[in-house]
Design brief:
The protein is mainly beta. It has no helices and 16 strands. Helices cover about 0% and strands about 50% of the residues.
Amino acid sequence: IYTISSTILIFNATNLTIRGKGIDQTFLIGYNQVSIFFAQYCQGLKLTSFSIDYNSLPFTAGYIVNVDDKYVDMQVVPPHQADINRQVQAILRYNPIQMRPAFGSNTYEIYQSPPTDVNATLVSSSILRLPLRSPTQFLKGDSIVARYAIYGQDITDITIQSITIYTSWGMGFVTQRAKRLNTKNFYFFVQTILQIN
């Protein structure tokens, strides 16, 4: 078991393999709700033979109670907690009745490189302020999920092999501008059911 408290950054790697001892023997446990890996400008990257989990949920859920061009305030709903000092990379509208991301005309999600000079802060006992890079279409009353992504960008020939992710549906392996992405024995298990009442 390896405790991960900050993101493992991989930049400009060529023919790099990160290998655990086995999908059921090597566990990377995220404790600070960080991305486990961030890979950029890599070629021939292979991640293999380990499992990923989080000590607490890797997302926060609730309702928007205030909207501004530079932030949204969210009423956090139990069992979720107001995680302060985090940088939110993605926010999506959520349908609490269907217990899934909003769909149809209600579909809306943002991905952002969060502002580096501000993090999520507590406005009151259960109101979390989420900084935004730019104005959004979120509205007061929207049910949302603020999440943290495992992320790869501008990568070529990446292989994800014999990996299990034990976490919520909102996580996984996110790529942008990836070429020749291969997945083999990639498992994703729902750890807990998202509840917004």
